[in-house]
Amino acid sequence: MNGAQDLGGQHGLGPVAPEKDEPYFHAEWEKRALGLTLSCGAFGAWTLDESRHARESLPPATYLAASYYEIWIRALETLLTRHRFVSSAELAEGRMLEKGAQPKRILTGDMVAGVLAKGGPCDRPVAEAPVFAVGQRVRTRNFHPETHTRLPRYARAKTGVVEAVQGSFVFPDDNAHGKGENPQWVYTVVFDAGEVWGEGADPSLTVSIDAWESYLERA
Amino acid sequence: MHDHDDHHHHDNHFSDMQARVKALETVLTQKGLIDPAAIDAIVETYETKVGPRNGARVVAKAWSEPDFADWLSRDATAAIASLGYGGRQGEHMRAVFNTAATHNLVVCTLCSCYPWAVLGLPPVWYKAPPYRSRAVIDPRSVLEEFGLTLPQTKKIRVWDSTAELRYIVIPERPEGTEGLDQEALADLVTRDSMIGTGLAKPVGAGR
Questions:
Q1: pLDDT of residue B10
Q2: pTM higher than 0.90, yes or no?
Q3: How is domain B51-195 classified at the architecture level of CATH?
Q4: Inter-chain touch A15–B145, beta carbons under 8 Å
């Protein structure tokens, strides 16, 4: 979706302002936000792709004004109510009012080390051979779905070169919306800055994306 | 978080979020859906166990052992796993090597993808709109904010982490480090040098 999350090339968002000796957390609630997001993710009720879509579906003004932990918490509220684990009334009152859905799994303290060590690999085999080969020129498609996609706007309808075939992975554009994992080959595609940014682009700059096969066409 | 003229507003906002997160945690706890001990264990993991020292050890080993560097370039996930690092947000690793000709910089323009397994939790700026918007179109101005001015002859390659591959930059080994062991070398490797917003520290620089 062409939401506030698709930031590549936007202007006017200010300095990066790196913080010297930045702490891991800037407030206690950020620690809880991290733990809650991972704990609820462990329910197995939604995919990483669905959670990314919930985050990018925040109103743009909210998204741009929020820190990333705030984005996580607001999206987590969406996911928990969508999947009926909690109700809006419960969030408003800050207490349990009804029995909601029950998850497949509840993350307990003793499970944490194993769950974090395992992670969530999302490479999946596909039967077909890759359509594109290293060194081949490809053009990204020009599309503007209102649904989830990982092809940023700045890299749509642009010609680049396949630099690597990275393996086959869950297709987020489908998986975010409960349409299945439908894995595809993923390619690293590199663009000259002039192709992406046009006049005045830095001639010493190249930019790459990792693109699912269906994002690409022969150039 | 960097607007120092606006502290009061941010303090209020932080207390709003404190209350909002507290309400959420209370509901989930009353429903038996979360274990507060799990939250504590997650926080402790990323405060004390999984951080940029992991990545620094990977870099120091790559600098010291050409065979390891070669493995890292071909199968970063396996090479990094041999040091005991992997799992969440390190499942599919790629290592990209700075050279005399090319400087690498990693960003996630669409969200906050970051190689947690080797660098830990991302800093605020990495997840915030200014870095995500500017890194792909004007990386030199971004690097200058980090105090890094690259010569115009240096090529810059920006890696936008749009899929599930997670990138670690292997910075160039500083000169004059021939005699150093891997532990001493790892001390020269900063988090920013593995994102690409910095270089490894010269020998003798303070921490």
A1: 54
A2: yes
A3: Alpha-Beta Complex (3.90)
A4: yes
